[in-house]
Amino acid sequence: MNANLKNCPQCGRLFSPGSRNICNRCLEKEEEEYMTVRRYVRDHPGASIFEASEETGVEEEKIMQFIRDGRLVTRGFKGVLQCEGCGKPINNGRFCDDCINERNNAIYGAARQPKPQPEPDRKPPSVGKRSERMHVRD
Ligand SMILES: [Zn+2]
Ligand SMILES: [Zn+2]
């Protein structure tokens, strides 16, 4: 007998948990759903989660999960996720770049890096005004 058997939270069947928390059957199903959504997003860049869910029959929550897991990294879905740190809309993962940086800084503690300053706005010297006098270099 195996004391490590667990009930699959999705279908309730007993299984021995491996790297994932659901049984193989559900894992396979999830994999299929993932591929379906992936294909849909590839063919329909810019689709919303809602549309993808409607078209593929995969639950929105599932699609969100794929994105959260970083499996569905796509420019297709815009701003559907919120940073868990500051609530800013993000495209994938759980945190926005700012919060990731902050967390990294917290981890590395004392070696806190100053925030990189944005490049100063270096516009090319304006030319082409009609009144402007032209000159040539000697
Ligand atoms: Zn299952
Ligand atoms: Zn954030």
From TrEMBL:
Residues covered by region (Disordered): 107-138
InterPro entries: Flagellar_operon_YvyF
NCBIfam families xrefs: YvyF
Keyword annotations of the record: Cell projection, Cilium, Flagellum
Basic and acidic residues: bias regions: 118-138
Name of the protein: Flagellar operon protein YvyF
Taxonomic superkingdom: Bacteria
